[in-house]
Amino acid sequence: MNMLKGAKGFWSSIVLAVVFGIVMQFLITGEIINFFYVNTLYFIGINIILAASLHLIIGITGQFSIGHAGFLAVGAYASAIITMKLELPFALGLVAGGVAAAIAGLIIGIPTLRLKGDYLAIATLGFGEIVRIVFLNIEYVGGASGMTVTQLTTWPWLFGSILLTLLVIRNFTNSTHGRACISVRENEIAADAMGINTTYYKVVAFAIGAFFAGVAGALYAHNFFIIQPTNFGFLKSFDILIFVVLGGLGSMSGAVLAAILLTIVSTFLQSYPELRMIIYSLVLIIMMLYRPQGIMGTRELTSFFKFGKSAKGGVNDGSKNTVA
Amino acid sequence: MEFLQQLVNGVSLGSIYALIALGYTMVYGIVKLINFAHGDVFMVGAFIGFYSITILDLGFFPSLLISMVTCAILGVLIERIAYKPLRNATRIAALITAIGVSLLIEYGVIYVRGAQPEAYPGDLIPATSIDFLGVKVSSQSLMILGTSVVLMVLLQFIVHKTKIGKAMRAVSYDMDAARLMGINVNNTISATFAIGSALAGAAGVAFGMYYTKIEPLMGIIPGLKAFVAAVLGGIGIIPGAMVGGLLLGVIESLVSAAGFSLWRDGVAFVVLILILIFRPAGLFGKNVREKV
């Protein structure tokens, strides 16, 4: 009975989301909302995918990866090569971006995921930098001056990608594999002792997260006219990290909400880049000092609609704040 | 001779990395925190040095001293305001706070003085060079090397011969036991931050002299490389940081000399990943097994 109820909520939220997507499509094609807002909407969408994909790595699996911009870069360049150099269709570019980033995730994940905490953080940070330097030095993709890309990202592609990302990550989290990942987050040594192949689950989560970051990279690349290695530095990684941390480590809806909120805020602060970063960093510090679990903790948005109902032992692990 | 020349360049660059790495390694050894803001303390040190030379019209050594003192105060402030409340929090919370502090310093400086770079006055030390076995050693390199060596010797003296050094070693070994033995842990940690930040400040001035260009975001890359140096030598081990810094400087110079200068910044990270994979405890460290 409980399962059925959960499934009903799941399907109705998908229907709602699709209706929202179609309405937005009409608003965009009918030019009811102007170009500035459409552009902001695209940014929000890309950031949602990035936030959700990093959420899977940090929030669910507890692997502190801070080189996410590296996967974004791999996806962006891979898809741009497919569409611009090889002149293949955009859909293929989107998939290629994801696959290339997932491969990069495997390459970096298999050796470094044996490391823990701080060491992993610094290794992934190093990886992000290496990716940037590699693209900086390859003439085929334009080196420092970057690569010109035609604008191919449209609302249906973007919306479809967001929906797919959120669905896959949600279902992964609620599956056996997701639970294994959560157990790795809570206590890796204990999970190992319980017979969970921790390395395997960490690598899987890393590869899935990287895949969607790559898809976001493809959308990102085809939303601009030019991509340059400087777009994918530390600051980009930190931006994505802030979404996840602010939303609550372990809450996908938290990460999505934070991505929406912060993208809107930074759009308004675009003409004051320094001020934006100062506000960002202050938010980060104050948040960690007074509410280290983030806005949502490990709760999901749906748990707020379950007041009075039996929320115990439900879809997620309640309001525990035990992220390592 | 070319090889020797690159070795000399590498050693001067490496001594700067070593100075920054010492701060990282000391802080990590005592509170187990990657102090991301350390590279920015280094940047602030470079700017304080610059302003004391140009505006206050001071010489090299007074500027160095002012820079070190200011950075020590800054380091203690950062520790007291941002890190101390989080001493019992999760590692991720502490790491994120450190990233936040780092961004705050970077963009705070840009907000106050703008992002434009500044040219370090080059005439502070008479620019002569000594020929040594056919290798040119500039007076600036010698000065940087000399300053670094003196500071490192001083640090070894503080850590091994003074009371506060003994307290630092005790706290890094076991914080709770040290507290039970009557050591003021908070003051000891502050002292560690002060000494580490002072070294970063000195490195900032030395960097300015060596590269003659400073800017608000200059702390990021040298800071990360210094961290790599600390990991290379075994994080938490003071001689390890010195050797790691020098080694990294030499590796970098040799890579540049081999014609891969564009890849120079990447080399440090490749070294990092290799060392983490094959010898995560660093060259000087021992492997410790974690228990539940």
TrEMBL record, chain B:
Protein's cellular compartments: Cell membrane
GO biological process: D-alanine transmembrane transport; L-alanine transport; L-isoleucine import across plasma membrane
Keywords: Amino-acid transport, Cell inner membrane, Cell membrane, Membrane, Transmembrane, Transmembrane helix, Transport
MF annotations from Gene Ontology: L-isoleucine transmembrane transporter activity; L-leucine transmembrane transporter activity; L-phenylalanine transmembrane transporter activity; L-valine transmembrane transporter activity
Membrane topology reported for the UniProt record: Multi-pass membrane protein
Keyword presence, Thylakoid: no
Main localization category: membrane
Transmembrane segments: 6-26, 59-78, 90-112, 141-159, 189-211, 226-250, 262-282
InterPro entries registered for this protein in UniProt: ABC_transp_permease, BCAA_transport_permease
Superkingdom of the organism of origin: Bacteria
GO cellular component terms, semicolon-separated: plasma membrane
PANTHER family per the UniProt record, alphabetical: BRANCHED-CHAIN AMINO ACID TRANSPORT SYSTEM PERMEASE PROTEIN LIVH (PTHR11795), HIGH-AFFINITY BRANCHED-CHAIN AMINO ACID TRANSPORT SYSTEM PERMEASE PROTEIN LIVH (PTHR11795:SF371)
Family note: Belongs to the binding-protein-dependent transport system permease family. LivHM subfamily.
Protein name listed in UniProt: Branched-chain amino acid transport system permease protein
Native source species: Neobacillus niacini
